[in-house]
């Protein structure tokens, strides 16, 4: 099976660059942007050897997993571009939900899987990490912004020893290929990218994201690198910051950090 865009993505003018094996789809997408590529273009592979997650952590994709990056060049500020990551999470959640429901039809009696979105950039299944999202942006000619959203999904295998326990679709009993998942993702992206609308529709994205948010109302600890913020996960605000409410009812906005929920919050706060 080969990678193909969904019909809505093709109709919307998206392009596709597929690789049998590559170092990093995000790096390739940004390199193409520097060379003049303006997209929108998907870069995909089932084997990534030098991928990166947040804070420059290694994120490899063994053959059979899905590494995908979408390049779009926009007339938006970096702060607005950052909110596109929430649309990416919703796109992947929607694609996964569709495929898992189809898998359930083939597995009579199986309970439906629940996929949730963990701030700022993870997609979870059964409280375990299934996918990570990495958004990068860089100024290009014409005073525009090249935005690359990388989405790495554990299709057949998951790493061990991660801060948040990880899983794969195969381990969850959803036996689909990376190519099938990508087609569904490219279709969902058209929908949620359209709702986001260069940031103008972030209020609707925010509302939808909160409906799928992991840990909402739970105890949370965020290690920002310089301090630890503890309290209850209250919401995300109009710019995508995580809002934490402490025991006295005061609310604090967190822009970035390592997030720990529930019992893990004690570890994260240590």
TrEMBL record:
| Keywords attached to this entry | ATP-binding, Biotin, Ligase, Nucleotide-binding
Q: Which GO terms describe its cellular component?
A: cytoplasm
Q: Which Gene3D superfamilies match?
A: 2.30.30.100, Bira Bifunctional Protein, Domain 2 (3.30.930.10)
Per its UniProt record, what PROSITE patterns does this chain match? BPL_LPL_CATALYTIC (PS51733)
Per the database record, which ranges form the BPL/LPL catalytic domain?
1-197
The reactions it catalyses are: biotin + L-lysyl-[protein] + ATP = N(6)-biotinyl-L-lysyl-[protein] + AMP + diphosphate + H(+)
Which Pfam families does the record cross-reference, listed alphabetically?
A: BPL_C (PF02237), BPL_LplA_LipB (PF03099)
Enzyme nomenclature, EC number? 6.3.4.15
A GO molecular function assigned to this protein is:
ATP binding
Protein name listed in UniProt? biotin--[biotin carboxyl-carrier protein] ligase
């Amino acid at each position: 099976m080969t990678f193909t865009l969904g019909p809505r993505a093709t109709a919307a003018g998206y392009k596709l660059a597929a690789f049998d094996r590559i170092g990093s789809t995000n790096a390739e997408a940004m390199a193409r942007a520097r060379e003049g590529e303006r997209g929108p273009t998907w870069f995909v592979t089932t084997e990534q050897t030098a991928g990166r997650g947040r804070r420059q952590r290694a994120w490899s994709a063994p053959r059979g997993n899905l590494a995908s990056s979408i390049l779009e060049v926009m007339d938006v500020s970096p702060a607005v571009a950052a909110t596109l990551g929430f649309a990416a999470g919703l796109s992947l959640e929607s694609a996964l939900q569709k495929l898992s429901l189809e898998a359930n039809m083939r597995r009579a009696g199986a309970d439906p899987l629940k996929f949730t979105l963990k701030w700022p950039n993870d997609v979870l299944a059964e409280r375990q990490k299934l996918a990570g999202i990495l958004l990068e942006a860089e100024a290009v000619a014409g005073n525009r912004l090249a935005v690359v959203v990388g989405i790495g999904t554990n299709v057949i295998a998951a790493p061990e020893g991660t801060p948040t326990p990880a899983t794969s679709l195969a381990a969850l009993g959803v036996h689909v290929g990376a190519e099938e998942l990508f087609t569904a993702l490219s279709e969902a992206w058209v929908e949620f990218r359209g709702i986001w609308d260069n940031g103008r529709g972030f209020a609707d994205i925010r509302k939808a994201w909160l409906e799928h948010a992991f840990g909402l109302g739970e105890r949370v600890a965020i290690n920002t690198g310089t301090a630890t913020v503890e309290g209850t996960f209250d919401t995300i605000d109009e710019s995508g910051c995580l809002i934490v409410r402490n025991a006295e009812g005061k609310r604090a906005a967190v822009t970035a950090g390592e997030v720990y929920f529930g019992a893990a919050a004690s570890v994260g706060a240590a």
